[in-house]
Amino acid sequence: MAQGPQQGAGALEAGQVQAMFDRIAGFYDALNGVMSAGLHHRWRERAVDLARVGPGSRVLDVATGTGDLAFELARRVAPGGEVVGSDFSEGMLARARAKVEGDWSPPAPLSAHASHASVRFEWGDALELPYESDSFDAATVGFGARNFSDLRRGLGEMARVVRPGGRVVVLEITSPTRPPLSVFYRMWFDRVVPLLGRLAGDSDAYSYLPNSVRRFPAPAILAGEMERVGLREIGYLLTAGGIIAIHAGTVSSNGA
Fold this sequence. Notes:
CATH class: Alpha Beta
Order of helices and strands: HHEHEHEEHEHHHEE
CATH topology: Rossmann fold
Distance between the termini: 23 Å
Structural class: alpha/beta
Number of domains: 1
CATH superfamily: Vaccinia Virus protein VP39
Shape: globular
Mean pLDDT: 83
Helix content: 40-55%
């Protein structure tokens, strides 16, 4: 879920981040549910709203992890659409593929109309996406952009593979600045989250999480980075009391 040589996004080398996500793949979904009180699915729904996709659309989900955002996209692009989930952690991809095969069911299973969309998961480096330019209607990344070793390059790659007029959406954790939520947030991420990691057997991974969030640009700065790679009509919304930011921009007609 992080790609390329790490340059400070989370104070780990890319190979270390890759190995970390391989290690935690087995309990990643369960801890996501605990840490977000189950709200992370709703945040993904709102991100897909901003992608502005519909039946027949072709969408790329970068740093897809165990695939939950890709599955939500699949529900929106059915019938006839296609979703490609890309990640460089084989452990995470294995979990995502197991969900497609029915070995594990997401909270809203892929039955009914969503089953009429094509969903596949494949290895890919977010800093050098193996896809043709202008080949998708939208590109998304959920809780993975903070792991890009070169944020501008990763955003630029997402914009490159999306057709003019298509959308790039970034769903990410951010740091609230106003008390009392900011105080609770620091306590939760600095103390509770690492404790959950220790209980799950990987304290390093869940100490990395708060560090990567602190290093990630504030919402206004991220919007500026999206503009620098050629996106237009950029906007963002804050939800969950300012803990979650969802950014979206449109690929300009002359390319990113």
